Amino acid sequence: MHISQKTVGHLIEYVAANNSQASLGSFLMRQRLGDADPGPDIRKFSSMSVVKRSSLALDAAFKSGKEDELVGLAVTALRDHEDVPSAPLWVQEILNSLRTDGFTCTPNSDLIPAASGWGSPTTETRWTITPLGYTALPVATLSSDLADQLNSKGFATAAGHYDQALAAFHRRSWAASNGQLRTTFESVLVGLATAQTGTIPSGGGPAIDALAKKGLLPFGPNEYVRGLWKLSHKAGSHPGLSDEEDGHHRMYAISAIVGWLLRSYA
C-alpha cells in the first residue's frame, strides 16, 4: 500500500491551516519531516506563504518516499477527531483518501480521568493506520487483554517489554517491535519455568526444555512453542532485516502464544 498524491494534498491543507511561519519548522521536525522543509523565504521584498512552504515540504517528502512519516502525520492530524458525520470535512477527506489508498484507519478511544475532583473525564481518540487486511484481526483488543494478563499474573518485566513492542509496532518500526516481542516471549518462558520447575533457566530455549521435561508441554504445544521461539530470532532485532508483513505476523503469533502460556500455566 502506498500513500497517494491526493492524500498528501489533504495533509498539506491540514498543515498549512494549523501552523504559522513561526511554528511550522518545529512542527515538521516533530513529524520527522524537518529535512524536507525549505524554510521561510528570506529573500528581500519576498515572502513564502505557509501554504507554499507546507506544499514544498510535503511534496519533497512524498517524492523521497517518506511514507511512514506521512502516515504518522495523518495520525497526528486525526488525533481527537472521531469518524462521525459531524466531524470536520477535512477529517472525512483524509480518511476517505487514505482508505482509497488501501489503508485501514481504526480509532481507539481512551477515557482520561479529570485532573481534579471538580473536573470531568475527557475522551481522547487515537488512530491506527495500517495496510488494508491486517486490522481485521483485533490488534487493539488482543494487545490490551494480554497487557492486562501479564500485569495481573505478576509478569511486570514482560509487560514492560510488551508495551515497548506495541509502541514500536504503532510507529511501524518492525525490527524494534520484533526484538521486544522476542524479549517478552523469553521473559514469560523463563518466569513460567522458574515457577513450575524450581530452576532458573538461562534463556528461552532452556526454559522450554525445563517445561517439557516437567511434562507441561506435550508433543503438539512443545513443537509449536519451539518453532515460534526459533522463528523469533530470525530478522528479529536487526535493523533492515524485518519488513511490515513479518512484523504483523509476529505481533499476532507471539501475542497469541504468550496469552495461551499464561492461561495454561501461570
Keywords for this entry:
mainly alpha; two-stranded antiparallel sheet; 2 domains; single chain; about 270 residues
Structural description of this entry:
With 266 residues, the chain is mainly α. It folds into 2 domains: 5-131, no CATH class; 139-265. 60% of the residues lie in helices and 8% in strands. It is built from 11 helices and 2 strands. It has helices at 5-17, 21-30, 50-63, 67-78, 89-101, 139-152, 156-170, 174-197, 204-213, 219-231, 244-265; strands at 103-112, 122-131. The chain has a two-stranded antiparallel ribbon. It is elongated, with a radius of gyration of 23 Å. The model is unreliable at 133-137 and 235-240 (pLDDT under 50).
Shape: elongated
End-to-end distance, in Å?
A: 40 Å
* Low-confidence parts: 133-137, 235-240
Written as H for each helix and E for each strand, in order along the chain, the element string is HHHHHEEHHHHHH
Strand count:
2
Summed over residues and divided by their number, the pLDDT gives a mean of 83
Strand content: 5-15%
Radius of gyration computed on alpha carbons: 23 Å
Strand order of the largest sheet: 1-2
**Derived structural class:** mainly alpha
Helix content: 55-70%
